[in-house]
Amino acid sequence: MQTETDVLIIGAGPAGLTASYLLTKHGRDVVVLEKDPVYVGGISRTVNYKNFLFDIGGHRFFSKSREVVDLWKEILPDDFIQRPRLSRIFYNNKFFAYPLRAFEALFKLGLFNSAACMVSYGIAKLTPVRNPKTFHQWVRNQFGERLFSIFFKTYTEKVWGMSCDEISADWAAQRIKGLNLMTAVLNGVANSLGVKPKGDVKTLIETFEYPRRGPGMMWDAAAEKTRANGGKVVMDREMRTAEWDASRKVWTINAVDRTGASHVYTANHLISSAPIAELSAALSPPASSNAHASELRYRDFLTVALIARNTKAFPDNWIYIHDPAVKVGRIQNFLSWSPEMAPDGDHACLGLEYFCFEGDGVWSAPDTELIELAKREIAHIGLVKPEDVVDACVVRQAKAYPIYDDAYQSHVEAVRRDYEESFPTLHLVGRNGMHKYNNQDHAMMTAMLTVENILAGERVFDVWQVNEDAEYGEAGVSGAQEALKSVRLTPRKVAA
Predict the structure, then answer these.
(1) Buried b (16+ CB within 10 A) or exposed e, 101-134
(2) Assigned CATH topology for domain 2-78+215-296+406-487
(3) Phi then psi dihedrals of residue 189, to 5 deg
(4) 14, 440 contact by CB (below 8 A)
(5) 2 DSSP β-pair partners
(6) Better-predicted residue by pLDDT, 154 or 302
(7) Which of 9, 16, 21 lies closest to 71 in space, CA to CA?
(8) What is the dihedral of CA 8, 19, 277, 457, to 10 degrees?
């Protein structure tokens, strides 16, 4: 049996469901295919383990884009709570507030280390690396070599599984945009003195909004609203092939479910939030850029969720673990995200995040071994005693982070050029769909602009500008309208 639709969307994550909701609001016929049999939301889903709720990573709801914030409130109007951001760094058996508090950092690092950090920063400013290419070079320019080695190197190499000299400066520029040592120190002094810091560097935000039962609430609601508008969100459907008929300008997509049964869909437009490498392998006729797509790399991770009796274990949303003596990279306390993340007041759900590659020793370890490892390591850090852990589970997340190595940009550019020339109604959106380490709001913005293009019947907006140009990326659709002259493409009609 074959299902016909106007727009077929691969992936029911933030980008896919943003597109489906907005398109169905405009009366377009939409089908969303999601390979997970249970959860929508992708990496922004909320897992339910015996009524304990936890994120796959933490998902703060904060954006400079008015349109994104308005859309969050439209989809989920009555379920946001305001939360304080509290996070710390664990380094050398000490906890440091993050963002840094100047006097606390000075005291805990010690006079010699603090003075060395300032000297190192001065040297970096006097002798900067011109046109920094690597993460190491970019951070060294912004903070100095000493602070790089203390507060960036160990954690970053845990996350990516590679040297900071192999990671592109693009990642640092995107994720730590607008922050340098002087900004951090000035904000740290203001924090230490109880003064509200100036500026809006997103790395330093102190409050955020959060759905009271986790980010999955948002995407469950978006899926339901899509269905209420006449669209379809179909679970347990994994794309196997996507065939483009250039003469009829129609896509034919074959997907399978867990039983191996095949399901066929035809569509005028194909929106993909699937990893580029997976999409490339499915395309027919094969894309000329397949070799480039196959070179794109991903970092995976898993969460060991510990259910602990001690609900006052620590007040942080999360703690970054810079200690090389343990494998864990970050620890979440989901009760600090929302009181409703636990079914009672006597237990908390703590998420220990281990960064790995799919198939390596950590990824492939039995759950029982991972749980014992997590219990030992959280005790080593001094947060929870092993005997206070009463239950646990493990959740693995493949392709959580697109890797920014020294060659990724040339591969993505080759894929982008090829797809735009060969497949005029193929639209790439979201983090993995564009191989861009976007936040949730930026992934949504790529979908919002894609919807504008489909409704216009031509590629009016260049969605690749999201999160690259500050005004365009942060101002949202209104900013895109204002910047239209600078980003408008040569008009090219596509099937509307």
Answers:
(1) bbebbbebbeeeebebbeebbeebeeeeeeebeb
(2) FAD/NAD(P)-binding domain (3.50.50)
(3) -65, -45
(4) yes
(5) 264
(6) 302
(7) 21
(8) 70
pLDDT at 494 > cutoff 80: no
289-305 as b/e: b if 16+ CB within 10 A = beebbebbbbbbbbbbb
Q: Which amino acid is at 169?
A: A
Three-class SS of residue 298?
Answer: strand
229, 29 Cβ separation under 8 angstroms:
no
> At residue 134, what are phi and psi to the nearest 5 degrees?
-115, 165
The CATH classification number of 298-402 equals 3.90.660.20
pLDDT in tens, 184-226: 554 554 454 454 544 444 444 678 899 999 999 999 999 999 9
Give this prediction's pTM.
Answer: 0.88
Asked if the domains at 2-78+215-296+406-487 and 298-402 fall in one CATH topology, the answer is: no
Q: State the Cα torsion 441-447-449-450 to the nearest 10°.
A: 170
Among 458, 460, 468, 465, residue whose Cα is nearest residue 494:
458
Kindly write down the DSSP assignment for every residue of 440-470, as one continuous string: HHHHHHHHHHHHHHHHHTB--S-GGGTTTSH
Give me the residue spans of the domains in the chain: 2-78+215-296+406-487, 100-205, 298-402
| C-alpha distances out from residue 217 to 2, 225, 447, Å | 32, 12, 19
